[in-house]
Give the backbone structure.
Amino acid sequence: MRLSRYYLPLLKETPADAQIASHRLMLRAGMIRQEGAGIYAWLPLGFRVLKKIEQIVREEQNRAGAVEMLMPTIQSAELWRESGRYDAYGKEMLRIRDRADREMLFGPTNEEMITEIFRAGIRSYKDLPKLLYHIQWKFRDEIRPRFGVMRGREFLMKDTYSFDIDEASARQSYNKMFVAYLRTFARLGLKSIPMRADTGPIGGDLSHEFIVLAETGESAVFCDRRLVDLETPAKDIDFDGDLQPVIDQFTSHYAATDEMHDAAGFEENVDEQNRVSARGIEVGHIFFFGDKYSTPMKAVVAGPDGGEIPVQMGSYGVGVSRLMGAIIEAYHDDDGCKWPVPVAPYHVGLVNLRAGDEACDAACEKIYAALEAKGVEVLYDDTGARPGEKFARMDLIGLPYQIVIGPRGLEKGEAEVKSRVDGVRETAPVGEVSARVANAVLEALQYA
Ligand code: ATP
Ligand code: MG
């Protein structure tokens, strides 16, 4: 992409109401624009990152055996009356009336709708288990939308729903999502820690929030340091095999958010040097809730003995748009973002220090074409801006690699390469620079 054709509206001033780094940087780097309280437009640069996060979430869902679909954003109140949640949900639900005065709502979540879809198509225990998911915009009229996309009112969520014949089978579905989440967040460059969460009247131990440690996180969290060092399950893990040992490994150490924290138990079970009291961002939540919806909504299947059995369900959410904030919180400095390669809006920023100069233009065009031919994504700064402005802009948007071409370097046959993550600069022969950077990018795109 040529910057001269792009839309990258940077802000000079730091927006006064943006309290945390990710919110400030997303506004300053022209990634989002606020259109209302907790409502954002995704500008071209931010939209690319959002799509990459979404794609990684999708790949790991598919790997775990979940099947993608898409449910609408608008739902009918009638459906929510069946579960009893239409009245119970309260003011967080955005309620709408259509022209025929029918009560509708903008979906804050989809348990009712997926239960309705399930009961229309599945009749026998032989068709179970099923894992269905979609990635769709939600609306929740949060009392205090804040921190940009971290707590929006309109936000993008991946939500999966599991359907099983009994609790033992439901646990296997739960475990699949547990492992898929560990892998998803690791691929996004984040260390996530599963923490016991409240199961309310459902009871049991099948509810975990996945928390990324960050000073600016909204939740106070407490955990055992040894959890941070556990290895992420490998790509070739067998999702149809026994996943319980992995789950046991991740749940055998103390980890709880504020709501579930037991100070005495923490001190008793965790050695002082391993106690972590920190803040964290909830990026995912998995929850088994049995027949909470299937019984009132009559989502039943014929069991092996012919009788009708309400299906056992769970739901599994990932905050796709919130993740973008969480990634920036983990990867930035005072100058701007420092994108990990897998989610970077472009892999390389190509800076032409003297656009219009024949030699500089020719060298840049050649590098641009060579990188694109290898599948490397390039944002080419072909504008007439001053060098200082170009450097600051590239640092702010934080592409992993910068290639700088100027008349002085060219005379010596040299280009400069800067890695944004570690700040290392080196010179390379102009003829070799595209191959060198392409290798580094392609290597970083191989994941474990
Ligand atoms: P929270 O406690 O942060 O309000 P929640 O318990 O309401 O979250 P879930 O209903 O489990 O969240 O939704 C699944 C995921 O969606 C959450 O783990 C979070 O990552 C994301 N999410 C929830 N609310 C928001 C929001 N207002 N803005 C952005 N992402 C959100
Ligand atoms: Mg909430």
Summary: The chain has a mean pLDDT of 96. The chain has two domains: 3-336, 346-445. The two ends are 29 Å apart (CA to CA). Residues 24 and 428 are 34 Å apart (CA to CA).
